[in-house]
What does this fold into?
Amino acid sequence: MAKIRYLALAFLILAATLFEFIGNDGTIESLDPVIEIAITLSGDRDDSMVFNHPPTIKEVLDRAGLENVYNFDMTTVLQNNHDLYLDSSSGLVSLNEAGIDELQTIKGIGPVTAMKIVAYRNSKRFETIEEIMEVSGIGEKTYLKLRGFLCL
Amino acid sequence: MPVKNTLIYHFIAAILGVLAVKTSVLWIVVLAGYLAFVIVKMKIPRPVLLLFTTVFFICFGWFYQVEDRQYDQIEGVVESVDGNKAVVATALTKVLVYFEDAEFDNDDRIRMDLASFSSVPYKNPGGFDYAQYLKTQGISQVAWCEAVEVMERRAGLKDFLASRFQGDTPVDSYSKMFILGIKDENIDATRMVELSIIHLFALSGMHLDYLKELIKKLLGFFVGRTHMDIASNIIIGVYLLNIPLNLAFTRAFGVGLFWWLFKDRFNKLDCLGLVGIAFILKNPYVIYSLSFIFSFAIYLILLLIGNFKFSDAILYLGSVPLILAVNYRLNLVGMVLAAIIGPFVKWFYLVILVNALMGGALDSAVVLFIRVFENILTLGSTMSLYLNFGRPGEVFIGIYYFHYLLLIARLSGNLPIRRDIARLIGLALGYSLFLMFSPVGKVVMIDVGQGDCFLVKQPFNRGNILIDTGGNISFDLAKNVTVPYLHSLGVFNLDCVILSHNDYDHSGAYESLANLIPIGETVREYQGELVVGDLALEILDLHDYGDKNDNSLVIHTIINDLGYLFLGDVSKEVENTIVASYGQLEVDVLKVSHHGSNTATSETLLQAFKPRLALISVGLDNPYNHPSFQVTGLLESYGVKIQRTDRNGALEIGYLPGSRNYLFPYLK
It folds into this structure.
């Protein structure tokens, strides 16, 4: 009789402990982070692709089946949600080579902006066209207006 | 009448029915068991009626919905005014409004423009459930009063009573408490709750009895015996209608009234059942109100015990689970105090009543009582001896009340109850020990609004650690949110508190916290490895940055095989340094830096550590727009599950040593 009592008590303690875990929202161990880095292309090609790691420009162009006619450094790593602008037309002004006067031929770039662009590329080469948004004073709207006239 | 002697069963069926619909379907099981017991075992007459009542209340509870809509403008009657807030009753619902200057009084008809705000900024299990409290009052909206137009002024007894005790003196405050049932800031309700004597100072059936005695003595000179009852009931009825709604008092008056009117048809249990059913019909959420639960349960027990010599002690035994559900621990000094302080409270109450009737002539006597009482409170608080528990589980409550009902049954059958009492005491002590040395370990992100506060509770009481305390300038966070939640988790002391940096939203609540809960060690500076119980925490060795946030203590630890990284408020620069120096650390759970601001959470960090779970402690509608959508978007791209306090409330991660780690968000 006493044995049954102790057994019942032990069972009760076990049940009460386990009861606390009812209504859980899953375990941390079951969480499996799936990395989905989204890259979009615009300009020459409109496309969107998903990688399971931050891709190099080489990997992006390879997957799109495009050649590097854009003067990219193929080892550049792109981060999540990057929109890569591609423009292979001729007669474009080079962000990395053009002088202050040539930059100002583009409508929307005045002397101040031109100087800022040159100052930026003196410390770091432009790896993509959209990198022009890192220059102070050039936001997304300006970038969208200018990009059709630029190359690397 | 067919329902004689059975109304109490209908009342209990009604409660269970509402619980089944409003809380959890599992209550149907209890309801079914109850009906089977009452109909089959106890063989009550006309069981069909009981089934009908059950079905009726299930349907009633199902269709009764608290108004969801938040209004910009309302028109209604002012039901009560208290300080800078008022309750306005509209045609559909009630609204709690906060205002600056009172341009209106009780009973006035007004039109008001409102700006709603969320009344529940802190969403934690344990501690006062404000959202539910509002539901029990029938209040569906909380708002600021932007503009008010008084359409009709009405003067009444409510205004007279409210203004009579308007002042700020202790006499006014205690008079307000005993006559209107309102406690203002001068009343130290906290200590009264701690000492388990708060029920003696909340208007209840006990006070009604004293009031009736007083009325009878005073009216005895003018009114004959036959008219005494009528006069007394009318006076008390009018009084009741003109003070803020008090459930316990109304319950007592209602039962007394029905008993007086129908004593040849109904017994007292029937009257209790009738009053209870009336309350549920008015607002089924009332069953969650503490006043309802306490007052009905205690009176029911009193009726069942009858005139037993130690009825006070039996009553106290019956209220143990209720006390635990509110305080999470038993105050043993309070238990003794509650037993002996009764006569003092009676005289205190009567002196205040007579003083009010005599226009303040006995003020000095009242002051004397107040002084003595506050000395008793101080002595009691200093000498306090606690038996600690935590939130009482449903299993414990069920077993306890099962044995308690057996005790009551044996008592009414005049059988010896010594064994039953011993069993109950043993059950309580055993449960306390079980909770104290519980094998369950927890890591908790406490919802402190805008701020950080993380608890690590080790299994078998091996040590409790708090990382940051949160802080709110206009609100005592520790007293109202943190400490009650810690107590509900069975944490009554903190071996170590680590403050990452001294920004107010991380360490502001520390001072108040230290006064409310014993703290062992407080860590504010780098000190390498920290060992608390079975847990080793590593404070990362980073160089000194110029900035307070960047200098936050960064903590890494492994709890039950999962790596945790607490980043304080550091920026991306610091995060990249951490990757460079500590890139090999295992991180499964990441406490996101700076409440999800986009000055932090670099892609480098996520690429290096690939955490599975991100914890963001952030306040609802905070002015900084934390967490930034860039951070949440980045976390999502890296497949990290996000738990944020503004949407999900607190998060508990629970485990048994060696088991998997389970997630328990307060809101899914």
